Amino acid sequence: MAVKVHTPVFLAERDMDWLRDRLSPAALEKIRTHLRLFQSWVAEPALRKPSARAAVQHVLESGGTAAQFKVAVVEALAQVPGGLEALLREATEHLGDDEALEELPALDAAVDQLQCAQRSWVRFLSFHPNAPQILDSHGRQVLRLIDVGFHADNLLTVALLGLHERREDTDRSVLEGIAEAAREWTGAYYGAVRDLVESVGPTIDPADPFRTRPLADLLSLPPHDEAAATIEEMDEAIGDAIHQE
Known about the structure:
Layout: H1 13-19, H2 25-47, H3 52-60, H4 63-77, H5 83-94, H6 105-127, H7 131-137, H8 139-165, H9 172-200, H10 214-220, H11 231-244
Helix pairs in contact: 2-3, 2-4, 2-8, 3-9, 5-6, 6-8, 6-9, 8-9
């Protein structure tokens, strides 16, 4: 998944609870260790910075530690039946289920943008008939998309950790600045995903829609960020479209 899906990762505490009965103690401790590394090397130093600009710069320069954490999480989840599915649900659906986000409108908007981008990206990789070839032929565009999404997720994660920990040594303006940067980067990520999907997506044949190639037609329909996530839902959506015709 880390190679083929490239989904940025934020693992909520509720997923740690879900995984407790499914992972070996060693695997669970590996995840917790890397989460602590992310907190101590990326999040906490950023939240202690004297200015929002310095905090954001620290997060952007801490890619190595963040990547180490995320790869460890994906590797551990791959060992658990349903583990990667839980990760996708978290990344595409459940991040916004947090009342604390109301305190930071920029962070709330960042969560929405990240989830929209994730839904579109997962839909594209899961259902596009030529996804592997497109990833190869549009390599530069894909790499930029992944890079922007990686930093967007890191900034969002740090802002969420700062919001929940409510550190006394964190200046409110620093937290707000990180949240605003997260909003900007997730917006750029969402835009990059849409640009790729729309530039390589199939086009509808208006003379014969949903008849000879329903999957391709469905893939071309906006909004790309709200498409069905399962084969069953895709089949249902295709059937509805045919019925409307």
